[in-house]
Records
---
Amino acid sequence: MKSAESDIVHSADAANRPLRRPEWLKVHLRTDGDFTELKTIMRQGHLHTVCEEARCPNIYDCWFHRTATFMILGSVCTRACRFCAVTAGKPTELDWEEPGRVANAVVQMALRHVVITSVARDDLEDGGASVFAACIHEVRKASPECAVEVLIPDFMGQREALQTVMDARPDILNHNIETVRRLSDRIRAKAKYERTLELLRRAREMQPTIPTKSSIMLGVGETWEEILSTMDDLREANVSIMTIGQYLQPSRRHLAVERYYTPEQFAELKQEGLRRGFDHVESGPLVRSSYHAHEQASGVMTK
C-alpha cells in the first residue's frame, strides 16, 4: 500500500505564503430558511454559538438542518490558543439565567441532541462547571427526550469541577485533545496534553456508563505516526468517540496551515481508529467536534 504520509499536500515555503485551499474544502453558503430562523432564535435568547464565534466551516450545513452548539459563559475566553478564533481577554459575563434560555432554545428548535460548550473561564473558582451542570438539568427538565452532550474545558485539572459536571450525568462528555503531544504546548494556551488525558480517564472512572469523546485537528505540523500515537493515548484513556478534522486558519494572525490532508487519508485514519477500538470515528476534512454529533452518538449511547 502506498504510504498515506506521502499523499499529504505539502508546501516548500509554507512559512512564507499560505497554502491554497483544496477543492474539497470549499463550503457552499446557505442563508435561507432554517438558517435564518435559527439565527433569530439565538439572538432573541441572547445566546452565543461556537458555530459563529469559532467561524466553523459547517455552520450553514448544520444550521440548515437545525442543529447547533451553544457556547455558554459568555463570548470572551481567558485563553488565547493559536488556532482558535474565539475572542480572548478578561470575561465579565456570568449569567445564571443562561441555562434556562438554552433550554428554551432547545425546545423552540425541537432538538434531539444538543451540544453545550463554553469559553475557558479560568477566572471562576470552578471554571464554570456549576453552570454546565445547571444547563444539563434545565435542558433535561424542558426536553426530556433530548440527548445532552457537553464539550468542556479542562477546569485547570480541578477534580471537583469535573465531578460537578459528571454528577449532572450528561449523555456524552467531550473534551478535545486538539493536537499531538509534541505540539500541544506551542498550540494550546495553558492546556496540557497529559491533563487532557487525565480528565478523560477521570470522567470514565466517575461515571463508567457515560461515553467520552475527543477531537484532533490536522495540518499544524504533526506526523502520521504522531496521529496514530494520539489515538493510542485516547484509547488508553478509555475514550469512546474520536473526531478528526482539517485545521483551517481563521485569520492571518492565527497559526498557519502547514499541510492539507486528502479525503482518502481521512478515510484511512477512520479505519485506523476503528481498528484501535473506538466505538465511532468521524474523520473528514470539514469534520469538527460537534459536526453531526447526533449521528456520532447514536450507536454509542445504546452500548
Note: DSSP finds eleven helices and eight strands in the chain.
---
Amino acid sequence: MVARAPARSVPSIPQLRAVALEAARAGGERALEGFGRRLRPERKSDGSPVTRFDRASEAAIRRVIRARWPEHRILGEEGGETGTDPRVRWVVDPIDGTKSFVHGVPMFSVLIGVEVDGRPVVGVIHLPALGETVEGAVGLGCRWNGRRAHVSGIGTLAEAMLLTTSVRAVEQRGVPFRRLWEATASQRGWSDGYGYALVATGRAEVMLDAGMSPWDAAPLVPILAEAGGRFTDWKGSTTIYGGDGVGTNGRLHAAVLRLLRIPPRRG
C-alpha cells in the first residue's frame, strides 16, 4: 500500500497578512519607478491599458510570495494563474487604476487578496504614490498605515458621500444611478481601489463599481468587514466573483441596494 503524502499545512492569517504587505510594497516600489513618466501603454484584448510597470509590479509581487510559499496559487491580472496548492490562492492586481497611473494621477493602488478554501481572509490596498496602506485580515482588524481603521458611523444616505469609478458604466447597466446620486449628500469620482480605501477609513460611505474582475475585488471583503463595513455584488452576495461591487459602511448597504432595485440578501 502506497502511503499518502502529508497534507500541506495552511499558513496562519498573521503569516499571510505579513507576506501580503511585503508583496504589496514590493509591487508598489516597481510601480513608482514608472510613475510620472511619459508612458505609451499597450492595449489588451478588452481595450484596457497596460504598461511594462504593471508587469514589473506583478513580477515583484509573485517573487515575494513564491520565495515563501512556491506552491501557492497566484492569479494575477497580467500573468494569469500559476501554482498547485488547492487551498491557498493569491489574487493580484499590480496596478489598479492604470489609467490614473498613466496620466500621473497618484490614486492608483496595488491590490492583493488571499483566499483560503475559497474564503477571502486577507486584503491589502497599497497606494504607493500617496504613502497609504489599508489592510484587513480576518480576526485581526483593519489598519490604515498601522493604525486601527473603522468605517464612518453615518446612518442616512442624506449625509453620505458616494463614490464611483464610472458613472457611464453604471448607467449602461440600466441602473437608476440618478436616484442614488440624488439621495446622497455629495458625490465624487475617487475611483478604483482608492474609493474603497476611503470607505474603510471612514472618509466616504458608499463606493459603487459596475464592472469588476476578481483581482479588482479580491482585498475588499476582509478589509471592509474588519473595518465594520460590507462589500457585496449588486445582488447582495459577499463575493469577489459577482462582476460588480458595492462597498459601504454597513449601515447604508441595504438602502443602497434598494435604490439600485436589487433586493439585498445575506452573503
Note: Confidence is low (pLDDT under 50) at residues 1-6.
---
Amino acid sequence: MEFNVKTLEGKDAGTVALSDEIFGLDPREDILARMVRWQLAKKQQGTHKTKGRAEIARTGAKMYKQKGTGRARHHSARAPQFRGGGKAHGPVVRSHEHDLPKKVRALALRHALSAKFKAEDLIIIDDLVAAEAKTKALVGTLASLGLTNALVIGGAELDSNFKLAAQNIPNVDVLPVQGINVYDILRRGKLVLSKAAVEALEERFK
C-alpha cells in the first residue's frame, strides 16, 4: 500500500510502499498484551527482599519455660508473630522473567505497527535531520506536525543534532530502528518513522 511521506517542515515528500504483512494486519490485543507483560517483567529488578526468621539478629533462646506460666507455648523471639521478628513468606531476590517465543515477539511488533497504521497514528518523515541542536526549534517543528506525544524512530544511526534537541522534550522518545519495541510504540500517541526505518523494518521482516 502507498503511504504519504512528509518532511519535518510538514511538506509532501512523495510516497513510500508499505508491506501489508507489517502494517496491514488486524491487531490482536492478546498478543500485544503478552508482549507488554513480557517486556515489563524483563525490566523488573527483582531486588525486593525481607528478612526471614533465620536472618534476624536476635537471640534464639527460648522466651520462657514451656509449662506452668498459663501463657502460650513460644520458643524464639525471632518468630514472625513478634515485633522485630522475621517476615513469613516475604519477597526474596529473584528474576521476574518468563519465556515468550521469538516468533510471538516478532508478530507482536508487526501487530503494534499495524495498530498505529489502522488508528491513523502513523507518520513517515523523509529524513530526521536537525540543522542545529536546539530544543526550542524542534518543539516548534514537531508541534506544527501535531506531535506532542510521540515515539520517533530513525535509521540505524540517529542525527546527533536531532537526538540532542529531542532528548529534553517531554513525552517524545527518540530511538534508532534497532531499539524499536512494542511497549514504547503503545505508550506514545503517535509513531513517527523515517524512510530509513521503514526500509530497515521491511528488510527485518522479509
Note: Strands lie at 2-6, 12-17, 122-125, 150-153, 172-175, 190-194.
